[in-house]
Amino acid sequence: MLSTIVLALLVSLTLYALKIYTQFARNLAAAKKSGIPYVIIPFYQLNRLYQLSQLFVVPIARKLPVSWTEIWFDLTLEWGWARRYEPFKRFGTDTFLTVSPERNQLYTADANVISQITTRKTDFPKPLEVYESIKIYGNNVVTSEGQVWRHHRKITSPPFSEKNNHLVWTETLEQCQAMVNGWFDGNTGKTESKTIYTLADDAMRLSLYVISRAGFGVRLQWPGTGGTHANGHVKNEEENNTSSVGNAQKHTMSYTDALGSLLHNILWVLIVPPFLLKHLPFQRTKESYTAFVEWGKYMNEMFQQKKATVLKGEEGDSMDLMVALVKGAGITKESSTGEKPPAQTLTDEEILGNAFVFILAGHETTANTLHFCLALLATNIAAQRHLQADLDEIFQGRPVNESEYEEVIPKLFASMAGAVLNEELRLLAPVVGVPKSTLKDSPQPLELGGKTCTVPADCYIAIITPAVHRNPNQWPTGPPANPQKPSHPLSNLDNDLEEFKPERWILDPDAKHAASMPDQEADTEASHLGVNTAADTSAALYRPPKGAYIPFSEGYRSCIGRRFAQVEILAVLALIFSLYSVELAVDAYASDEEVGKMNDQEKFEVWSKARDEVNRQMNEDMGAIITLQLRKGAIGLRFVKRGKERFNCNAR
Ligand code: HEM
Ligand SMILES: *[C@@H]1O[C@H](CO)[C@@H](O)[C@H](O)[C@H]1NC(C)=O
Ligand SMILES: *[C@@H]1O[C@H](CO)[C@@H](O)[C@H](O)[C@H]1NC(C)=O
Ligand SMILES: *[C@@H]1O[C@H](CO)[C@@H](O)[C@H](O)[C@H]1NC(C)=O
């Protein structure tokens, strides 16, 4: 009996080993034939077991001799963020394959390769299995490919118009003003705010409120601001039901809390199936489940309400996302002639799925960009002063919220404001690996350094954004600020690509006056899908070669909310820095009283300590789960009226 079991076990093990070996041999052969440099690693990066092993096995295995493990430890999970350009430099190639028994992978930081991959959308489709988990409310524009994707994209693109961007601008300014008032405890007469440690949360709230308004027509009110708005549906935090919705169900969480909690617990919600989530005995999972259900209810109510409005033909010219989804799905005004309405082309689930994915895609990304723009500007005083000088020239003393959007927005794009935005997204692009693939049985030719190579079939492709944006073969470089103290321990030690230097984008300081918007879309097939094939950045600024700067990805599957996000961030920069300066908090090193008595040299010393700590946080405490953000701690900042700065040391 026992011997039978042992035998069976041995046979299965042998068969398993044989299978692994055959797969490996096949993958290796494909890599050899490809003409692309390759390295062999034991695991496929997206294998769930391998990912779990990072928690338990890898820390132990790190104790093994370095020569055994060197290459594949360099390529552990999140290596794109942790190591950036360093592996590419060491391997001496901007594109390489990794071979493992399960699946081959291609990693690239090469602009030319990226251009090819992002333009040939049928040759290099999205690996849909990666997006499986964001279908929780239904299929959507992110989780689909081919004709289905085209259909979703076409329906979801109308709200991303200039008209709606104008709304993004006004709503951002209003909410941002409320945020600033909060920092000053409602007393903007004060010259200095307290030290703010809640910037990450504040930025999240701001971007959520803006997307709620511009995406869904729901206006949320900043906590602590009294009164009501003249138009829009106003809600405040405590409200448990959507007052805008006629058939409101009983809710156990406010809209903001539901969404906040959903996003906070998103990994649980994405990984654990709902029925399990509901019954797991943890506070966290219970809360995630409630948030998941509650937010679904809110979305559904909003959907039903918009549907009713559209059926009555009362939506006017409002074109928020929900209205666009309802209309795009074929729901139209009931015709008086009794004609049958066209069949609904998106299911109710798909409509909710898209609503969710827009919040998911647009919320954290924009919030983190805002958060880090402020933190980075606090570490680079010269750049901040340059930004303020540009804003003064653009606004000429007029309040930002009383200036013409059409007039100032192109100028902002072309000024230090645009440069700061571009540079922040170069350094800290929220999406650190843009996934693509080749299909089974479909190897693809690829031009690589002038010769034609072959990407193996069924290959997972990751475009490593942090490396692309720091590839010295594709970016003009200068010497590092301080060779003794490199900005990153491994990557780009001999140049300035790891540094926050918005000035690298400024070609002609006067160009902002004659600026037009970043290229507008020609009337192409792509433009009808809301695909922006135009450059990300203003023509007045430095234009990286195609494929070298991809914070919003490129080609057909590039970000639909690009301009939305850019306008929002430019509005925040304009509003804050036309009136205030942001300073690093030095509370950990000296009290306000001590700082008051310091001379310039002493101030510079405490300020430098604070700066070094922020730089450390930005290297070490960041994680790239879903989007790149600070995973622990907080960056402390203070806001002060312009002219009342405590630290003017020009630190570089
Ligand atoms: C700074 C802010 C943002 C950044 C850096 C960003 C970046 C990106 C990137 C890199 C992709 C491609 C992802 C992939 O291929 O897997 C993407 C796709 C997408 N983004 Fe954004 N995004 C931002 C803001 C927004 C906003 C505000 C919205 C909506 C309101 C949005 C909606 C989307 C959607 C729907 C897609 C999928 C498009 C498709 O597959 O056709 N994003 N974004
Ligand atoms: C909820 O909805 C009802 C009726 O629509 C409304 O009277 C009430 O003020 C709303 N808010 C709360 C917190 O119950
Ligand atoms: C909203 O619901 C929560 C949880 O049930 C409750 O504690 C709170 O008092 C409610 N707020 C209002 C205004 O009804
Ligand atoms: C601009 O902002 C100021 C300060 O919040 C406010 O008093 C003023 O009414 C705003 N103007 C417009 C046109 O919204």
Automatic annotation (TrEMBL):
Pfam families per UniProt: p450
GO MF annotation terms: heme binding; iron ion binding; monooxygenase activity; oxidoreductase activity, acting on paired donors, with incorporation or reduction of molecular oxygen
SUPFAM superfamilies noted in UniProt: Cytochrome P450
Domain of life: Eukaryota
Region called Disordered, residue ranges: 471-494
Residues that, per the record, bind heme: 559
Keyword Iron: yes
Cofactor requirement: heme
Keyword terms: Heme, Iron, Metal-binding, Monooxygenase, Oxidoreductase
Record family assignment: Belongs to the cytochrome P450 family.
PANTHER family: CYTOCHROME P450 (PTHR24305), CYTOCHROME P450 12A4, MITOCHONDRIAL-RELATED (PTHR24305:SF166)
Protein name as catalogued: Cytochrome P450
The species this protein was found in: Alectoria fallacina
